[in-house]
């Protein structure tokens, strides 16, 4: 239990996309390894947590499932705030959910941290015979915006762990490694306020 309670960082991640694309089942598959074929539309917002270790640091991901239906938009907009990562999900068998991605991204960028990490997720690859959005289209959409991309199936669990873990690794690089690099660079800059004592302050390297 102690290992479950200990963490070095806690990060808020949101799942967004149209209603019915499989966000809730992606969340339950990742956090509980469960899939509910009778899953109903999420009312409001719910979240689950899961820990992951990256380079010796324990990350607690607090993953929020925001309802996709328009009538809940006023509620869910609050939950974008302080999010550092987002899985933006569409259903590969329903083209309109892919066409709505930009709307979701615009809302995310309006409410979330400007440096939020994003992965585009094409879900329901178990229904590939009903596919209406090609893998190449999804990849191109993500590449144009410099986002990560992956296709998943919450039903058979294909790439579900990879989708969340890849996003957390991206967040780690941005939140931890880049911050440490900046701090290291700053620490190497030693200000010299005494212009009359240049020789005594000079670096001996």
From TrEMBL:
Belongs to the small GTPase superfamily. Rab family. It is a lipid-anchor. The small GTPases Rab are key regulators of intracellular membrane trafficking, from the formation of transport vesicles to their fusion with membranes. Rabs cycle between an inactive GDP-bound form and an active GTP-bound form that is able to recruit to membranes different set of downstream effectors directly responsible for vesicle formation, movement, tethering and fusion. RAB25 regulates epithelial cell differentiation, proliferation and survival, thereby playing key roles in tumorigenesis. Signal peptide: none annotated. CDD domains: Rab11_like (cd01868). Residues 186-205 have a biased composition (Polar residues). This is Ras-related protein Rab-25. One of its GO terms (molecular function) is GTPase activity. Interacts (GTP-bound form) with RAB11FIP1, RAB11FIP2, RAB11FIP3 and RAB11FIP4. Interacts (via the hypervariable C-terminal region) with ITGB1 (via the cytoplasmic region); the interaction is GTP-dependent. Interacts with ITGAV. Associates with the integrin alpha-V/beta-1 heterodimer. Interacts with VPS33B. InterPro entries: P-loop_NTPase (IPR027417), Rab_GTPases_membrane_traffic (IPR050209), Small_GTP-bd (IPR005225), Small_GTPase (IPR001806). GO terms for cellular component: endomembrane system; pseudopodium membrane. It is found in: Cell projection, Pseudopodium membrane; Endomembrane system. Keywords: GTP-binding, Lipoprotein, Membrane, Nucleotide-binding, Prenylation. It holds the Pfam family Ras. Residues 182-205 are annotated as: Disordered. It comes from Mytilus galloprovincialis (Mediterranean mussel).
């Amino acid at each position: 239990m102690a290992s479950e309670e200990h963490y070095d960082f806690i990060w808020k991640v949101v799942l967004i996309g149209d209603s019915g694309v499989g966000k809730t089942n992606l969340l339950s598959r990742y956090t509980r390894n469960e899939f509910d074929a009778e899953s109903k539309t999420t009312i409001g917002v719910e979240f689950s947590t899961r820990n992951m270790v990256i380079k010796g640091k324990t990350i607690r991901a607090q993953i929020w499932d925001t309802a996709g239906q328009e009538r809940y938009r006023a509620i869910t907009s609050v939950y974008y705030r302080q999010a550092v990562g987002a899985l933006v999900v569409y259903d590969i068998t329903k083209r309109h959910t892919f066409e709505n991605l930009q709307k979701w991204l615009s809302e995310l960028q309006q409410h979330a941290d400007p440096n939020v990490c994003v992965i585009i997720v094409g879900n329901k690859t178990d229904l590939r015979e009903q596919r209406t959005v090609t893998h190449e289209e999804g990849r191109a959409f993500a590449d144009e915006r410099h986002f990560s991309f992956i296709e998943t199936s919450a039903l058979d669990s294909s790439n579900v762990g990879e989708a969340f873990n890849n996003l957390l690794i991206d967040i780690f690089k941005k939140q931890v490694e880049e911050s440490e690099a900046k701090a290291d660079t700053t620490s190497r800059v030693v200000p010299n306020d005494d212009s009359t004592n240049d020789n005594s302050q000079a670096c001996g390297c």
